[in-house]
From TrEMBL:
This is 4-nitrophenylphosphatase. Keywords: Hydrolase, Magnesium, Metal-binding. It comes from Basidiobolus meristosporus CBS 931.73. Its cofactor is Mg(2+). The keyword 4Fe-4S does not apply. Substrate binds at residue 219.
Length: 299
C-alpha cells in the first residue's frame, strides 16, 4: 500500500526503516542549476544518522569523477564511490558481471566519460573519439567483421555518424556471440530547459537493423541494480530508490526489489499516482525530498 509522508511520525518511521538511499538527481536534488529546498539538510541528516547515500543517474556522458565535480559545484557533499552513473555501471558490468576476456576489445560510441570508465576497469575500448570522420559509398566496404571485438556498447554520442552505425552493426551482425549493450534507453536528453533525442532514440537504428535487443544498463532495467547490489552488498529490504519519475526511477526500484519513494518536485505528479489505472506505484511519496528533514525535526 502506498503511503504519503506528511507528518513527523511518518518521516521518522520511514527514515528508521532504511539503511541505504539511492538518489536520482535532476528533479530530486536539483532543478536546473538550483538545489531544491531542504536537500542539503536532508542529505546531511542521513549522513549524521549513519545512512549510506548513492547517486544513481542514467547520464552516460560523464564519468564518476566528472559527476563529482558537478555535485561539489552545487555544494552537495559526495565522494566518487557514491556515484553510480550508467557509464560506470556499464564498465562495472562488463568487467565484473560478464568477466570480459582480457584478449577482447569493446567497440563503443559515446562520450569520453564512458571511455574513461571502461579504461578504469582495464577494458580495451575503441571507437570513442576515433570514428568522427564521415564515410562514403566508396569506402563503406572497408568496414569488416572483427573477431577481436567482444562487445559493442552504445551510449549517448553527440557526434554520431553512419561510420559508427556501420561498425557497430557489422561487428554484431557477423558475430552472434558479441555482447550487445546500451548504456540506457532514455528517449530524450534534457539540457538547458529543453530536450533533444536521447540515447534510446539514437541507438534505435542499430536495434532495428539487427532485430536484436541489447542488454540495457540504465534505469529502469535490472542490470544496473544488480551491479549496485553486487558492489555494495546491499540489503534490499532496507534500501530505497528515491526519484521523480514513475516509469524510470520508481520502476527501477520495483524491478530491483527495493523500497521506493517518489518526490513530487520533478516529472510525475500526485494525480498520476492516485490514478487507479496507474500500474506503477511507489511505496511512499512526499511533496519534496526536503520534507524528510523539515518534518523529522518538528517537535
Amino acid at each position: 500500500m502506498m503511503h504519503k509522508i506528511s507528518t513527523t511520525e511518518e518521516a521518522r518511521e520511514f527514515l528508521d526503516s532504511i539503511d541505504t538511499f539511492l538518489f536520482d538527481c535532476d528533479g530530486v536534488l536539483w532543478e536546473g542549476d538550483r538545489v531544491l529546498d531542504g536537500v542539503r539538510e536532508t542529505l546531511s541528516l542521513l549522513r549524521q544518522t549513519g545512512k549510506r547515500i548513492l547517486f544513481v543517474t542514467n547520464n552516460s556522458t560523464k564519468s564518476r569523477s566528472m559527476y563529482l565535480k558537478k555535485l561539489v559545484s552545487m555544494k552537495i557533499e559526495a565522494t566518487e564511490e557514491e556515484i553510480f552513473g550508467s557509464a560506470y555501471a556499464t564498465a562495472y558490468y562488463v568487467k565484473n558481471i560478464l568477466d570480459f576476456p582480457t584478449d577482447k576489445k569493446v567497440y563503443a560510441f559515446g562520450d569520453k566519460g564512458l571511455k574513461e570508465e571502461l579504461e578504469a576497469q582495464n577494458v580495451t575500448v575503441c571507437g570513442i573519439g576515433e570514428d568522427n570522420e564521415p564515410i562514403d559509398f566508396d569506402t563503406l566496404h572497408t568496414i569488416k567483421p572483427d573477431d577481436s571485438i567482444g562487445a559493442v556498447i552504445l551510449g549517448f554520442d553527440i557526434n554520431l555518424n553512419y561510420r559508427k552505425y556501420a561498425k557497430a552493426f557489422t561487428y554484431l551482425y557477423h558475430n552472434p556471440e558479441c555482447t550487445f549493450i546500451a548504456t540506457n534507453e532514455d528517449s530524450t536528453y534534457p539540457i538547458h530547459g529543453t530536450v533533444y533525442p536521447g540515447t534510446g532514440a539514437i541507438i534505435s537504428p542499430v536495434i532495428t537493423a539487427l532485430g536484436r535487443r541489447p542488454i540495457v544498463m540504465g534505469k529502469p532495467e535490472k542490470p544496473m541494480i544488480d551491479c549496485v547490489v553486487d558492489k555494495y552488498h546491499l540489503d534490499k529490504n532496507r534500501t530505497c530508490m528515491v526519484g521523480d519519475r514513475l516509469n524510470t526511477d520508481i520502476l527501477f526500484g520495483i524491478n530491483g526489489g527495493l523500497k521506493t519513494l517518489l518526490v513530487l518536485t520533478g516529472i510525475s505528479k500526485e494525480h498520476e499516482i492516485l490514478d487507479q489505472d496507474q500500474p506503477i506505484k511507489p511505496d511512499f511519496y512526499a511533496n519534496a525530498l526536503g520534507d524528510l528533514y523539515f518534518l523529522s525535526q518538528q517537535q
